[in-house]
C-alpha cells in the first residue's frame, strides 16, 4: 500500500548508495578463509601509528563532548596551508561536506553540473535539495571542462568537479582549471573534490587549488582523511573556502558532527609526514606493477593519478566481479559507472596486487567468462 506521508520530491529519483562488500560479509557468504578487498579505495597500509595512540588518549574521557569548533584541527590546517582557521569547515568525510555545499547553494529548480562518470554523491545531494543535475560525459576518460562550460545557464548554481576523477583516475591541469575559472561567472560555485590529490605523481601540472581561494572566492576545495591518512572508518574531512562561504556552510553543520576520536586522529595523521610518504610510494609502485602486468595480459587500462585503476577486460564486469569474489578478491565492477567491460581496482599492498592479478588470470581463462563478452 502506498503511503500518504509527505516525502520530499527529490527522494523519488534517488537510488540508495551501495558501498563495496565488506570482507567479513564475503568470508561468511562464501566460506573462504582469506579474502582481500580492492573495492573501496581504502588505505592498504592502515593508518599512522600515531593515530591509535591519539585515539586511546581521547577515550580516557568519553563522557565529554568533542570540540564543536574543531579548533585544534583547524589551527594545524591553517599552519600547513597558510589559510585562516575561519576558512575551514570540518565534516564527517567528503560525503557530509558535499552535502553541506548542496544545502548551502542549491534550491528547488536550481541546476548543478557534473562530469559523468564521476562520484555519484554529487547527483544525490543535488536531488535531495530538489535541484536538477546536468551530466556531461567524459572525453577519452577525462573531465571535459569546455563541455561543462557550454552547459552553464542562468539556473546553474554549482559545478561539481572531481580531480583526480573517480572512477577514471584522470586529472585536469593547473592551466586547464585556471582558464576554466576565469571563464565562468563568479556567482557559480565550483566544488573541487580532491579526495585523491595526495596520490598524484609529481610533474603532472596538478593545480594548487588551496592557494587559489583568495583569487576565486567561488572555489570550494574538499579533502578527506579517509584515503592517504587511512581514517575511513572515523569519517572526517575538510572543506577550504573563503571566510564568508565557510561561515555559511558551517551553519548547515550539526554542532558536534565530528567526534573527538576522529578529530584527534586527523591531527595525529597530519603530523606524520613519513607515513604519508610510505603510502604514496606503495601506491606508485603498485600502479607501475599494474601497468606492466596489464600490458603483458594485453588489457587496456587508464593511467591513473589516484589510488585505484580502471582496466578494460572486454567481458561483462558483473560476471567477472562474481567470479573474482569466489577467488577471494573484492573489486568494483565498472557497471556501477556505466562502464560494463571495465573493472575498478583499488591499489593494495604488493602482495594483494599479485593475488588479484593471479585471480584475474584465472577468471579470464574460465569458459563462463569467455562466453560473457558483450559487443
TrEMBL record:
<feature type="domain" description="Aminotransferase class I/classII large">
    <location>
        <begin position="34"/>
        <end position="360"/>
    </location>
</feature>
<comment type="similarity">
    <text>Belongs to the class-II pyridoxal-phosphate-dependent aminotransferase family. Histidinol-phosphate aminotransferase subfamily.</text>
</comment>
<dbReference type="GO" id="GO:0000105">
    <property type="term" value="P:L-histidine biosynthetic process"/>
</dbReference>
<dbReference type="Pfam" id="PF00155">
    <property type="entry name" value="Aminotran_1_2"/>
</dbReference>
<dbReference type="GO" id="GO:0030170">
    <property type="term" value="F:pyridoxal phosphate binding"/>
</dbReference>
<keyword id="KW-0032">Aminotransferase</keyword>
<dbReference type="InterPro" id="IPR015421">
    <property type="entry name" value="PyrdxlP-dep_Trfase_major"/>
</dbReference>
<keyword id="KW-0663">Pyridoxal phosphate</keyword>
<dbReference type="InterPro" id="IPR015424">
    <property type="entry name" value="PyrdxlP-dep_Trfase"/>
</dbReference>
<dbReference type="GO" id="GO:0004400">
    <property type="term" value="F:histidinol-phosphate transaminase activity"/>
</dbReference>
<protein>
    <recommendedName>
        <fullName>Histidinol-phosphate aminotransferase</fullName>
        <ecNumber>2.6.1.9</ecNumber>
    </recommendedName>
</protein>
<keyword id="KW-0808">Transferase</keyword>
<dbReference type="InterPro" id="IPR005861">
    <property type="entry name" value="HisP_aminotrans"/>
</dbReference>
<keyword id="KW-0028">Amino-acid biosynthesis</keyword>
<dbReference type="InterPro" id="IPR004839">
    <property type="entry name" value="Aminotransferase_I/II_large"/>
</dbReference>
<dbReference type="InterPro" id="IPR050106">
    <property type="entry name" value="HistidinolP_aminotransfase"/>
</dbReference>
<keyword id="KW-0368">Histidine biosynthesis</keyword>
<dbReference type="InterPro" id="IPR015422">
    <property type="entry name" value="PyrdxlP-dep_Trfase_small"/>
</dbReference>
<feature type="modified residue" description="N6-(pyridoxal phosphate)lysine">
    <location>
        <position position="227"/>
    </location>
</feature>
<comment type="pathway">
    <text>Amino-acid biosynthesis; L-histidine biosynthesis; L-histidine from 5-phospho-alpha-D-ribose 1-diphosphate: step 7/9.</text>
</comment>
<comment type="subunit">
    <text>Homodimer.</text>
</comment>
Amino acid at each position: 500500500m502506498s503511503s500518504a506521508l509527505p516525502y520530499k520530491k527529490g527522494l523519488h529519483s534517488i537510488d540508495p548508495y551501495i558501498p563495496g562488500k565488506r570482507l567479513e560479509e564475503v568470508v561468511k557468504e562464501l566460506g573462504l578463509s582469506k579474502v582481500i578487498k580492492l573495492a573501496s579505495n581504502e588505505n592498504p597500509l592502515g593508518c599512522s601509528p600515531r593515530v591509535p595512540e591519539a585515539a586511546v588518549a581521547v577515550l580516557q574521557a568519553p563522557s565529554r563532548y568533542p570540540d564543536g569548533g574543531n579548533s585544534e584541527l583547524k589551527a594545524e590546517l591553517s599552519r600547513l596551508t597558510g589559510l585562516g582557521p575561519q576558512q575551514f569547515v570540518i565534516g564527517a568525510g567528503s560525503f557530509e561536506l558535499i552535502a553541506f555545499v548542496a544545502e548551502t547553494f542549491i534550491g528547488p529548480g536550481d541546476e548543478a553540473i557534473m562530469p559523468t562518470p564521476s562520484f555519484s554523491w554529487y547527483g544525490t545531494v543535488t536531488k535531495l535539495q530538489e535541484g536538477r543535475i546536468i551530466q556531461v560525459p567524459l572525453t577519452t576518460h577525462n573531465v571535459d571542462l569546455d563541455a561543462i562550460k557550454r552547459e552553464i545557464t542562468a539556473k546553474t548554481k554549482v559545478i561539481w568537479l572531481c580531480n583526480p576523477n573517480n572512477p577514471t583516475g584522470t586529472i585536469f591541469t593547473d592551466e586547464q582549471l585556471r582558464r576554466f575559472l576565469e571563464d565562468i561567472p563568479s556567482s557559480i560555485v565550483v566544488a573541487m573534490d580532491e579526495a585523491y590529490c595526495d596520490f598524484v605523481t609529481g610533474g603532472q601540472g596538478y593545480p594548487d587549488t588551496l592557494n587559489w581561494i583568495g583569487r576565486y572566492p567561488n572555489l570550494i576545495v574538499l579533502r578527506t582523511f579517509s584515503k592517504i591518512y587511512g581514517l575511513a572508518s572515523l569519517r572526517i574531512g575538510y572543506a577550504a573556502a573563503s571566510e564568508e562561504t565557510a561561515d555559511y556552510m558551517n551553519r548547515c553543520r550539526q554542532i558536534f558532527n565530528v567526534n573527538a576520536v576522529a578529530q584527534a586522529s586527523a591531527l595525529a595523521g597530519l603530523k606524520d609526514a613519513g607515513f604519508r610518504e610510505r603510502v604514496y610510494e606503495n601506491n606508485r609502485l603498485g600502479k607501475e606493477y599494474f601497468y606492466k602486468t596489464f600490458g603483458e595480459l594485453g588489457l587496456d587500462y587508464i593511467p591513473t593519478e589516484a589510488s585505484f585503476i580502471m582496466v578494460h577486460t572486454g567481458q561483462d564486469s558483473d560476471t567477472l566481479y562474481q567470479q573474482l569474489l569466489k577467488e577471494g578478491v573484492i573489486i568494483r565492477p565498472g557497471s556501477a559507472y556505466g562502464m560494463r567491460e571495465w573493472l575498478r581496482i583499488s591499489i593494495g599492498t604488493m602482495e594483494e596486487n599479485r593475488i588479484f592479478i593471479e585471480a584475474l588470470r584465472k577468471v579470464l581463462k574460465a569458459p563462463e567468462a569467455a562466453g560473457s563478452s558483450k559487443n
